[in-house]
Amino acid sequence: MSARIETRIAIGGLLLLAAIVALIQSRAEEPTSTDPRRSTFLHGPAGAAGLADGLGRLGIAVERQRRRYASLLDRGDSVTPTTAFAVLDPSEWLDKAEGIQLAQWPVRNGDLVLAGVGSDAAMACFGYRARAREVDSVQARSPAGGDSAATPWVSAMLARHQATEIVDSGSGALDLTRCAVPPIVRAETLLVSRSGRAIAVRLHPEGYAGAVTLVADGRLFSNRLIRETDAGVFALGLFAGRDSVVIFDERHHGFGPTGSLFDAAFEWSERSPWGWLTWQLTAVGLLLLLFSAIRFGPARPLDDRQRRSALEHVTALATALSAAQGHDTAIHLMIRGLARRLAADGRRLQDPDQLLVRLKPVLRTDRGRQALAQLQALTRPGQPAESVLTAANAVEDVWQDLRP
Known about the structure:
Elements: H1 3-27, H2 49-57, E1 61-65, H3 69-73, E2 83-88, H4 96-102, H5 105-108, E3 112-115, H6 120-123, E4 128-132, E5 138-139, E6 153-154, E7 156-160, E8 165-168, E9 177-180, E10 184-192, E11 198-205, E12 212-215, H7 223-228, H8 231-237, E13 245-249, H9 261-271, H10 273-292, H11 310-323, H12 327-342, H13 352-359, H14 366-378, H15 386-402
Parallel strand pairs: 1-13, 2-3, 2-13, 3-12
Antiparallel strand pairs: 4-7, 5-6, 8-9, 10-11, 11-12
Helix pairs in contact: 1-10, 9-10, 11-12, 11-15, 12-15, 14-15
């Protein structure tokens, strides 16, 4: 079996193995995503895609904001009073400038929902701060009571502060931005701990077009808690019956307006069985290219070699037989070789004299006839060593005379 055939069999076996592995992975349970971001693009336990899907089933339109807040506030007429903006536990915490800017949303637009300690800079503009609990977690229950096995646990609380104005100096004293804590006409406590500390509140500031909902722990919007606890009822209840459109902030989860298609494809290939299959087939293709390639680059020219003529071969044979003292045998072998070249039945001619007699009538030149006469004389036994070379030249002359 040739090396090329063995290589093809090996590559075919690798392809079959890769296909079997991909089939097994595609039928197995998909690996659980460990991405901790509270993004509506993520379907893992920590993501918030379940909330977005639930809102869609309730007839509430879902949008994603992937640009800076300035572009959101500039939308103007495209935003209705029933449009809510939600910042769910941002992975990149809001700075003071962004918090002050975001606090302008409910003044002229719809509701604002702030969740998680990453939204603390915006919560401060409404008189509250979000504080994480370092030691343990507590149950988030309704103010009316009624704990159950499905009551969610949280690890952050809301706390009031006494400041009346939040100031951000930016890069210098001339870049001051500020937000004044508005007077609250009505405050609704949505979730509390067993000790009565606030976990989620809804504020109705004086003169604002929309309400402001503050949630201390953004995990209440995660896919896992929405599926396994009463957090799903709480999260959907914040928007159902109040809003027709919900805009989720995705920029602070790393989903900005720009990105690399290669990076996105690479991330997909890491978590998908079909992505692993693509990488395996790519590796097999590279191996196929490596094993099937004889050389890379242009072919190198070979040296120009000229083949020896038939006379040189005959002369070399005559010299070798002469050195072995086989003069008569050499002459007879050369005549028999001439017979094989002339006709197929020449192999059956055992007597050199019979062959030479047959050739005499068909020779066309005097040189050929002289060479034939030399061969007839050289067939007698007891020839000297020089006769072998003479016979070789004579055989070649006869052959050249008989060729058409």
